[in-house]
Amino acid sequence: MKVLVPVKRVIDYNVKVRVKADGSGVDLANVKMSMNPFDEIAVEQAIRLKETGQAEEVVAVSIGVKQAQETLRTALAMGADRAILVVAADDVHTDIEPLSVAKILAKIVEEEQPGLVLCGKQAIDNDMNATGQMLSALLGWSQATFASEVEVAGDKAKVTREVDGGLQTIEVTMPTIITVDLRLNEPRYASLPNIMKAKKKPLDEKTAADYGVDVSPRLSVVKTEEPAARAAGIKVGSVDELVAKLKEAGAV
Amino acid sequence: MTTYGLTEEHQMITETVRSFVEKEIYPHEELVERTGEVPEEIAQEIKRKTIELGFYACNFPESVGCAGLSHVEFALVERELGRGSMALNHFFGRPQNILMACEGEQIERYLMPAVRGEKMDALAMTEPGAGSDVRGMKCSAMRDGGDWVVNGTKHFISGAEHADFVIVFIATGEDQTPKGPKKRITAFLVDRGTPGFTIRDGYKSVSHRGYKNMILEFDDCRLPDTQVLGEVDSGFEVMNTWLYATRITVAAMSVGRARRAFDYALDYAAQREQFGQPIGKFQGVSFQLADMVTEIDAADLLTLAAADRLDRDLPANREIASAKLYASEMLARVTDAAIQLHGGMGLMDDYPLERFWRDARVERIWDGTSEIQRHIISRDMLRALGA
């Protein structure tokens, strides 16, 4: 089985995000960019499937600016076998919308014929949480979102989903799309031998036009603003005081 | 961050080691600082993870099963390790390069176990009476039958408390020269537990708590010829061949630590408000930050450029000395300025700044003092002119 793992280049989770002065978005100039943490979990899961012999090949794909090549190299250094870069924007501030991403991914799936697409449940930059679901609709494949446990057996996959009320276990028919949640695994560091090998692994460069997908935006961002600053907390000396303060604040 | 001349691999090595240091070293730093010890289970965990990642002994060549990093790549590893506690990152093992001088059965007894992480090494040169003046060493070995009998003391021996064996430089004779008597020196491999050889606690140092300096004592310690590393009386050649590049480590680590201190300073300058505005808006502070980052970048480039010369087999003695001198002195200025910028809080152990500042002090002293580096730099230029 071949596993396709889409990865997105996003602002690093450690960076203090700053809104651009004109409110048009987030300032990404000279900011550290990394692989979306949920996608890292997806890459890790794909590599584990390969290590257990359930997958033969792991293909990473990224859609965005040319610099996403670095993100793909990271996936290769973690252990992916090859990568596809789809250049769909010149400006680092351009975000390709989920439907366009899903359409390009659908074309890649047609070409590559993977048995499984593993992706992050959402990207930490805009939290859309849509690409996996849209891809499922476009392909007519089953989907299992928010996975915290994945078991692949033959033409079925058993997936434990983290839903609001707790955990839900479902069975889906392969090929399928699984979007992964935070607790599925802990991604590995790239090992030194894999870092050295990463450059020799194939990385195909394509454009959105190669797949005949129009990536022009359908949505417009009206305004971006900083969240309201959180007021400082207070320290309480005892449980009684804590309860009293909570009552005062009308919280209990 | 400096990216001049660096490739994607360089970037990935940097990021991997940095994230390792942030996740595996930082969380234990306070404990080590408070107790002056590295708990055994933490040491073993760091070692195990380093081996798993293929970074253990990455300064050693592929011929002995290691990563064979170039000097630039290894400098990047050291730079990122420099951000974290030396006591802890000792277990991100980087055995002494000099072990490549092992021959015959020494290879299986010392070199291979060291690069596989099965045995740890330490290097002993300094003595109470022989610091910068290596040839002034008193620790000596006399021939007795087919063996050597060693007597003397070594001190400031980092890593010796964890070492299974120590590479020790010992005087094995004296030549009369027109400039006076000159010691002949030999490198020996000495196993922990060899009769007559004791490793004991050294002094309490202001810098790098938990990264202990140990005292080695030799009292009629008997060593057979099989323990000689390299040739008898060729200690200086062994030293020059293999220890030449190690000063880059001090330079690279100084750069890493300076950047960590700088990150605190920059953040504080943006957050801390006095007189109704962030202190970074005051020119006295902002210009200080500008000077700090400029000096850090300069030291970074000087260090990588010296390493690059080694990779190109160009003479690098002066360049390495310049990098070691400048980076260690830069670190002193940057950690000092970072504290000044934090005011009183900078001295409190709520922040790691007072630790960086204390740790910075030794960098100008060990692996050749600033004065020795200046001597090397100036001699390199003047000797060529016959002066």
TrEMBL record, chain A:
InterPro entries: ET-Flavoprotein_bsu_CS (IPR000049), ETF_a/b_N (IPR014730), ETF_b (IPR012255), ETF_beta_N (IPR033948), Rossmann-like_a/b/a_fold (IPR014729). Keywords: Electron transport, Transport. The keyword Electron transport applies. The electron transfer flavoprotein serves as a specific electron acceptor for other dehydrogenases. It transfers the electrons to the main respiratory chain via ETF-ubiquinone oxidoreductase (ETF dehydrogenase). The keyword S-adenosyl-L-methionine does not apply. Pfam families: ETF. GO terms for molecular function: electron transfer activity. Heterodimer of an alpha and a beta subunit. Residues 23-215 form the Electron transfer flavoprotein alpha/beta-subunit N-terminal domain. PROSITE patterns: ETF_BETA. One of its GO terms (biological process) is carboxylic acid catabolic process. The lineage of its organism: Bacteria, Pseudomonadati, Pseudomonadota, Alphaproteobacteria, Rhodobacterales. Belongs to the ETF beta-subunit/FixA family. This is Electron transfer flavoprotein subunit beta. Coiled coil: none annotated.
TrEMBL record, chain B:
Residues 7-118 form the Acyl-CoA dehydrogenase/oxidase N-terminal domain. Signal peptide: none annotated. It holds the Pfam family Acyl-CoA_dh_N. InterPro entries: Acyl-CoA_DH_CS, Acyl-CoA_Oxase/DH_mid-dom, Acyl-CoA_Oxase/DH_mid-dom_sf, AcylCo_DH-like_C, AcylCo_DH/oxidase_C, AcylCoA_DH/ox_N, AcylCoA_DH/ox_N_sf, AcylCoA_DH/oxidase_NM_dom_sf. Its cofactor is FAD. The keyword Protein biosynthesis does not apply. It comes from the Bacteria. Residues 234-381 form the Acyl-CoA dehydrogenase/oxidase C-terminal domain. One of its GO terms (molecular function) is flavin adenine dinucleotide binding. Keywords: FAD, Flavoprotein, Oxidoreductase. PROSITE patterns: ACYL_COA_DH_1, ACYL_COA_DH_2. Belongs to the acyl-CoA dehydrogenase family. This is Acyl-CoA dehydrogenase. It comes from Aliishimia ponticola.
